[in-house]
Write a structure and sequence with these properties.
The structure holds 2 protein chains of 2 kinds. Chain A is of the alpha+beta class. Chain A has helices spanning 18-23, 52-58, 66-73; strands at residues 9-10, 13-14, 33-37, 40-44, 62-64. Chain B has one domain (3-146): Rossmann fold (3-Layer(aba) Sandwich), CATH 3.40.50. Classes of the chains: A alpha+beta, B alpha/beta.
């Protein structure tokens, strides 16, 4: 998914078209991260310091029989 | 420099749920360790189709994972660690066409095709992803030698 286009820079400000922001899930306001790689600038959503998922993974796990786990993944017919 | 990966639903499932049977317990440990490592690595971002968000949460719900945990995961999906890709009709049509050709069920396509061109690696224990339709990314099985397919008991790769 490579998108290339030219955008204008005015007084040090780069204006990102709405279609580009939408494509990368960047909101119109708020913070984002800027990563400089060589002579390129990458903009991405702010990376979280921690995740709920990592905390939940440390907690005791629910146990199920393998049959029940298989059934949970199986797609039921209508 | 960061890279994007896809983590298949079966890895999420085994990371959060532990099989009672001792012989399958190792899958749980391997899946949990892989998920922890991928989510902790700041150089890795996880690309997920909007379809897979629903699939992961629904599978965890059906496995009895509590609502608080599920809501915490959904909240994480909204952070910059994850790139959520919408499911578009053109992708669904492509998925339907290729699923009919390969006879692999549509759901694997709906997980992978929306993030085609975005991800470098697919972390999955489902050997359906070895099909040439998914060759756009490197396949990594973090629970090797186990193979996991929907609706089938885990088995060891021959």
């Amino acid at each position: 998914m490579m998108v290339k286009m030219k955008v204008k820079m005015i007084a040090g400000k780069i204006y990102l078209p709405k279609e580009v922001r939408k494509k990368v899930n960047l909101s119109e306001k708020g913070e984002c991260e800027v990563v400089v790689v060589g002579d390129e600038i990458r903009i991405r959503p702010v990376q979280p310091e921690t995740l709920n998922t990592l905390e939940h993974l440390k907690k005791p796990k629910r146990e199920m029989s393998i049959e029940d786990m298989v059934e949970a993944e199986a797609v039921e017919d209508a | 420099m960061h890279s994007y990966v896809l983590i298949d639903t079966n890895i999420w499932h085994f990371a959060f749920v532990k099989p009672r049977e001792e012989k399958f317990a190792g899958i749980h440990t391997l899946a949990r360790d892989a998920l922890e490592e991928l989510l902790s690595n700041k150089d890795i971002r996880v690309a997920i189709s909007a379809y897979q968000v629903a699939e992961i949460i629904e599978v965890l719900r059906r496995s009895g994972v509590d609502q608080e945990t599920r809501e915490g995961i959904i909240k994480d999906f909204g952070t910059g660690k994850f790139f959520i890709k919408s499911l578009e009709f053109d992708v669904v049509k492509e998925a339907l066409r290729d699923a009919a050709e390969s006879n692999i069920h549509i759901y694997d396509y709906l997980v992978a095709y929306p993030v085609k061109g975005v991800v470098d690696k697919i972390y999955s224990a489902d050997d359906h992803f070895k099909h040439e339709h998914f060759s756009f990314a490197e396949l990594v099985n973090p629970v090797e030698p186990w193979v996991l397919r929907e609706g089938v008991k885990p088995f060891r790769e021959r």
